[in-house]
């Protein structure tokens, strides 16, 4: 089992220019084909191929036709299965290392259709060039990018190390556009950060589960306890954490749970996809430095905890939240999570290409399926005091076309027309709100988490009715920890 796990993980979503993707490698055995190939359909495919080659308005390369056929066949299964060409396969592998070649900026789409800088990564090329949060990218290499999608913008900003890219930026209170030429470099992305937010209370954020995550988490927790040995409460922040390596989820969970308990299980068509993953070193050790969790303060097993989640919390972060919730080790606070509870296995095809194929579902220790449902917080708390901000407008797994169903629960009904109309009325307002910096003094959900740890009232989310007509709910009391 140990050797199998060293090559396993979860597929995550990215949000950086030079995005770090995550993946699931697996030693699952190939299932033999039990019946013959559908000859009639294969004949039709061959006929269509010949027809395109002979009759289409212009010549189409063989490679394009075959690659597109592969892409369409796999993508038709579900939103997370995909054919990976050489570049996509390389990007996927690089993401697990916490490294990528790019500029080092976290980005989002702006209301004007440009690319907004959420934050530059410290000591990255973008940070050294003077790019600031709130800047708008209007051109990349002098090419206008208004209404260009995030993924396409990322492709334009990625490249080989030491190559250059020129950005044209708009900055508030600066009259003329700024033009910056930046050299791409390998970016080492730190997925863990934390601090003492006030005496006795610590905040630990994990932005993605990568190979160094468990080691980095252990180092950060040790530093926090050294800074304040008498911690009375810990907030684990998994908001907008899109997932990553399975070992990271197991290791983070194991740091706070009794040794050896089940963290997550999987079930699928293959016999080897039916597995149980435990909080033991052989299930989470990746770096080869032994059991880094063994050196953590014993108080971590009992310190009162709150886990912050939102709609952007997916995959591996849902595994952590689900395990800590099932064992009643932590209170979950925030918004219902994304609901990506499926396992993707990478099957190399040769020629540096591969297929990413959904092979199983994930289940919490108590047998709850995460798929298309996610984790429902113990305390539903909006992102802001007056509403859930842009978080309330995000798509979840259940909204994706051809998503895998939840085999242990009924899926939520689709949003009504009235709810969608109300959401549209608020979307324009929410887009103008200043981007939230997690862990800051303005972090409303963090403040509510601290209130809970102190036994103070928590302001819960308002009922899910017409959001344009709802007033903020009155503060509700939280249970005191004994």
From TrEMBL:
One GO MF term: serine-type peptidase activity
Keyword Protease: yes
Alphabetical keyword list: Hydrolase, Protease, Serine protease
Classification via SUPFAM superfamilies: ClpP/crotonase, PDZ domain-like
Disordered as annotated region, ranges: 461-482
Chain ranges of the PDZ domain: 89-158
Gene3D superfamilies per UniProt: 2-enoyl-CoA Hydratase, Chain A, domain 1 (3.90.226.10), 2.30.42.10, 3.30.750.44
Biased composition (Low complexity): 469-482
Assigned GO CC terms: outer membrane-bounded periplasmic space
One BP annotation, GO: proteolysis
NCBIfam families (alphabetical): prc
Name the record gives this protein: Peptidase S41
Organism: Massilia violaceinigra
């Amino acid at each position: 089992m140990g050797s199998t796990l060293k090559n396993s993980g979860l597929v995550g979503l990215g949000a950086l220019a030079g995005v770090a993707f995550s993946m699931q490698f697996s030693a699952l055995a190939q299932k033999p084909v039990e019946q013959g190939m559908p000859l009639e359909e294969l004949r039709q495919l061959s006929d269509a191929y010949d027809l395109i080659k002979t009759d289409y308005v212009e010549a189409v390369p063989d490679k394009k036709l075959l690659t597109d056929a592969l892409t369409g066949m796999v993508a038709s299964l579900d939103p997370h299965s995909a054919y990976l060409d050489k570049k996509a396969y390389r990007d996927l592998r690089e993401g697990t290392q916490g490294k990528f070649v790019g500029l080092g900026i976290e980005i989002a789409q702006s209301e004007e259709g440009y690319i907004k800088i959420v934050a530059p990564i410290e000591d990255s090329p973008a940070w050294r060039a003077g790019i600031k949060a709130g800047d708008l990218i209007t051109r990349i290499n002098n090419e206008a990018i208004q209404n260009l999608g995030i993924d396409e913008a990322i492709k334009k900003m990625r490249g080989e190390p030491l190559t250059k890219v020129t950005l044209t930026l708009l900055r508030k209170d600066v009259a003329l556009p700024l033009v910056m030429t930046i050299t791409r470099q390998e970016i080492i992305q730190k997925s863990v950060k934390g601090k003492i937010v006030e005496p006795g209370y610590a905040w630990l954020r994990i932005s993605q589960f990568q190979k160094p995550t468990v080691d980095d988490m252990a180092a950060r927790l040790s530093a926090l306890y050294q800074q304040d040995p008498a911690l009375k409460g810990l907030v684990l922040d998994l908001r907008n954490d899109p997932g990553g390596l399975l070992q990271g989820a197991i290791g983070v969970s194991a740091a706070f749970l009794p040794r050896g308990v089940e963290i997550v299980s999987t079930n699928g068509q293959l016999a080897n996809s039916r597995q149980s993953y435990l909080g033991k070193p052989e299930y989470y050790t990746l770096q080869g430095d032994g059991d880094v969790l063994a050196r953590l303060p014993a108080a971590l097993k009992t310190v009162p905890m709150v886990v912050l989640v939102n709609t952007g919390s997916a995959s591996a972060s849902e595994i952590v939240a689900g395990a800590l919730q099932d064992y009643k080790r932590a209170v979950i606070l925030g918004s219902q999570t994304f609901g990506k509870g499926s396992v993707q296995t990478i099957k190399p095809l040769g020629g540096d290409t591969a297929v990413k194929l959904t092979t199983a579902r994930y289940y919490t220790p108590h047998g709850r399926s995460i798929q298309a449902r996610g984790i429902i917080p113990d305390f539903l708390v909006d992102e802001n005091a007056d509403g859930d901000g842009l978080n309330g407008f995000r798509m979840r797994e259940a909204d994706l076309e051809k998503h895998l169903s939840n085999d242990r629960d009924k899926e939520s009904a689709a949003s009504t027309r009235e709810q969608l109309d109300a959401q549209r009325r608020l979307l324009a307002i929410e887009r103008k709100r200043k981007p939230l910096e997690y862990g800051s003094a303005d972090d409303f959900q963090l403040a509510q988490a601290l209130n809970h740890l102190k036994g103070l009232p928590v302001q819960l989310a308002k009922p899910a009715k017409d959001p344009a007509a709802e007033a903020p709910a009155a503060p509700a009391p939280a249970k005191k920890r004994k």
